[in-house]
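Pirin family protein: structure, please.
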Amino acid sequence: MLKYIPASDRHHAAPVSWLSSYFLFSFADYHDPKNMHFGPLRVFNDDSIAPNSGFPQHPHSEMEIVTLVLDGEVTHEDTMGNKTSIPKGEVQRMTAGTGMAHGEMNRSDKPLHIYQLWFLPNQKGLAPSYEQKDLNFLDSKNELIPLVSGQKVLEDVVYMNSNSTIYWSNLKEDKEIEFKTFPIRNTFLYVQEGTIFVNGTELGPNDQARMTDEHVVQIRAKKAAQFILIDLPASEANY
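Here you go.
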């Protein structure tokens, strides 16, 4: 079963002048009890941050937090002692665990565009930890590139404490890819740009598909497209 969610259904938030954010799930001032999570995927925010601004230090706990930098550069500092920059094409994962705090700033004169995703961890009480990797995912061609995963069979990815995998794809016009899954798994897709058909359903920029009880996900690009695909456990026992 595929649930199509158009871009217009995203919740738009601009709580301060420097931030424009689209929430795909309940977050901050947006609360919809029917849209709290999809499997362990609890938060997916599509954030645009103005130059010379950003999120001052704030706390987190018991969450796996993943940031994908699509354009610009993040300046990161946290209470674990990490001070680093995360440029376009790099991926960051923080295990908030028993508690940590971080700040994410755009210190440049150019806008910053990121996706930030939160996953419910597969166990509580983990020690806070940090990982960052240059995966150059924005230059991939006509394949699904794994970026972050808790499935240890995958190599050269950022590890997270969730039985989930985040993939990225740049798919040229008329190219097709296939993702094999199982009815015990869920599949989430979000299109950054272009147009794709997902098992026959058309998705355009910023549209979503949430899929359950499928064996195969067939994806074809009507127009050259960039999108994220997330493989998720359907049952809480498997998070």
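Notes: The radius of gyration is 17 Å.
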